[in-house]
Specification:
Length: about 450
């Protein structure tokens, strides 16, 4: 009798363990089934197709073929990807491409993903970078649809270079710089300092600054490229990007105030773009009254921003304080058909600054283009922008930034251009932006 009781207990324990194992498996199946099916190396990994917004084939999973045009393959590699790219769409959208769902598995066949991206615009952007490492991105700040997204360097997935891991020209090639990198923003950060000054300084319109080319702070020196002139107001200080003026404003505002406005801009957060998590930026509230605080208000010191977050922030200024998270997926259809296979992705938004503050920033950024950067390179486009020349040290040329938007309901486009070690922001990165925007707005 005791032996029977002991065997019954053992049987019950084994049954309970089996049941627990089945529950665990079912939970894992419901939670991670799509990852199992879409994992690189599985028989389902290469399925589905990726198209641009105009129906240009970027990748066919059934055949393993990339775009027919080499320039297209190179300019869209970081988005389409191969087994080396963890943030590629083939990886993060594997469940969509395989057509997997927990009920039918993959029995109903693969799906095709149609992007918001214009592949020809990517080609133009990649060519405009002219061999430099960097980022070019353009998106609709009202819908979030990404029109252009380039990370350089790249290569042809049909013919990968044999020295990709040794050649410095390909350094960081497996990294999508738009999503996964952070950089010192340089003078683009002055938009943050300006926003803080607009909201915190009641006498900002009376602010005047005389730039002699340098500002001494506690034995340290904050420099400008040259003496910008006397009795400049805030509009002139932003347009000529005077470091001395903005270091002065930063020290008047204080580190904790600047930190609040950086956070409010969304530049310290990670965004989720179709399953891709972006890198978070950083800002250190340096000691009040220190030159370090002055440099942080200029966009140097320990300031770091992610290009994707910066793009969304630029869009928020154009959009009266509403930032729209960028989106790459336009639609999803049953493989080889036009039949919808999923509902469109919803628009994700967050708030940055007040509409009044954004309007003031918009006017000042428009003034930058008209008085400093040159309207002629943008034709009739009402471009509002800020350039940046970010020092990186070590004797290397500074990074060149140009970020902003078009203030036009017919062309609601925000943009960000980063040219690594490109030197002058407005001249180098601004030229890239001009070429891409001209094509993006062409009828």
């Amino acid at each position: 009798m005791k032996r029977l009781k002991r065997r019954t207990i053992i049987a019950l324990v084994l049954a309970a363990a089996f049941a627990a194992g089945m529950v665990f498996f079912l939970v894992q199946w419901l939670w991670k089934g799509d990852e199992w099916v879409g994992f690189f190396g599985s028989q389902y990994y290469n399925s589905g197709a990726i198209y641009d917004t105009n129906g240009v084939l970027l990748y066919n999973g059934e055949t393993g073929e990339y775009a027919e045009n080499r320039a297209t393959r190179v300019a869209t590699l970081h988005l389409v990807g191969d087994q080396n790219f963890g943030t590629s769409l083939r990886s993060v959208l594997s469940d969509r491409l395989t057509g997997y769902n927990p009920i039918t598995g993959t029995a109903l066949g693969s799906h095709d993903v149609h992007l918001t991206l214009d592949a020809s615009l990517n080609e133009t952007a990649y060519a405009a970078l002219n061999g430099h490492k960097g980022v070019v991105a353009v998106y609709d700040y009202t819908t979030g649809d990404i029109k252009c997204l380039v990370s350089s360097p790249s290569y042809d997935p049909n013919n990968p270079p044999s020295d990709v891991n040794e050649n410095s020209a390909y350094e960081g090639v497996y990294l999508n710089r738009f999503f996964s990198s952070t950089y010192p923003p340089g003078s683009v950060f002055k938009i943050i300092t300006t926003a803080a000054a607009i909201e915190e300084k009641d006498d900002l319109d009376q602010f005047r600054y005389t730039c002699t080319g340098s500002l001494e702070v506690g034995g340290d020196v904050i420099t400008c490229p040259y003496a910008h002139g006397a009795d400049m107001d805030i509009n002139q200080c932003l347009a000529c990007s005077c470091n001395g003026a903005y270091a002065t404003l930063a020290m008047e505002l204080g580190g904790s105030t600047l930190a609040k406005y950086v956070e409010q801009a969304g530049l310290l957060d990670s965004l989720n773009v179709n399953g891709i998590s972006t890198a978070s930026g950083s800002f250190v509230a340096e000691e009040d009254g220190s030159a370090y605080l002055g440099w942080s208000g200029v966009g140097q010191d320990k300031d770091l921003v992610n290009p994707c977050s910066l793009l969304a922030f630029m869009g928020s200024i154009a959009n009266e304080g509403e930032a729209v998270v960028p989106n790459l997926v336009g639609s999803e259809t049953i493989g080889g058909t036009a039949i919808p296979a999923a509902l469109p992705d919803g628009k994700d938004t967050y708030e940055t600054y007040s509409a009044e503050t954004c309007q003031r920033l918009k006017e000042m950024m428009r003034n930058n283009v008209v008085t400093e950067y040159g309207q002629s390179q943008f034709g009739d486009l009402a471009v509002c922008a800020k350039s940046g020349t970010a020092e990186v040290g070590g004797g290397a040329e500074p990074h060149a930034w140009f970020a902003g938007f078009i203030d036009d309901p017919d062309h609601p486009l925000a943009f960000v251009v980063l040219v690594e070690n490109g030197s002058a922001g407005a001249r180098v990165a601004g030229s890239v932006a001009a070429q891409v925007l001209a094509q993006a707005t062409a009828e």
